[in-house]
Amino acid sequence: MEDILYKYMSRWTSLNEEDQQAIVDEIRIEEFKKGTVLFKQGDAPTTCYFILKGCVRQYSIDEEGREVTSNFYSEEQAIAIFNHHKTEKSSDYTFTCVEDSVMVVGDLNIEQDMYDKHPQLEIMTRRMIEENFSQVQEEFAAFIASTPEERFKKLQMKRPSLIDRVPQHQLASYLGITPESLSRIKKRIDQDSR
Description:
alpha+beta; Jelly Rolls; four-stranded antiparallel beta sheet; about 20% strand; globular; Env_Response_Regulators; activator; RmlC-like_jellyroll; Cyclic nucleotide-binding domain-containing protein
């Protein structure tokens, strides 16, 4: 698993092997079982995560009590709640492991200490956030402007592994459609490809 971290640090920083090793030695890597809740909607998170292996679902409960899936995180993606601007610092989402997962667990209370000790780590984090934010903006704009079938086709193109990794009702929620509509879309696309 550590090789993923080294690859990622090499991509985003100019750290030498010795400095990379020093960071890897200080971080905590944990395994989480499928169904583990990392934190719940309403909790004030004190940790962030970087997925080495597995898949995590982000969702919230709406006013009618329905679960609304807003994202899935998988390998080489970070999970962090940016709620410093909120008075009570609570999360608007619940994060649950969809699969058995292995993640780097960061303690937000010592985040600045790590950045002070390893300035390149802060640069890496900022670059990751910038790339992620740009991607989220692009995906949101495309989501608003597209039909459900176009959303599914884009998912097939950009994140095909999700289709088999996550339960279909959660995938449908993520696409903003009912499970029945998702089944019809998949069937139609399958027939068109023959």
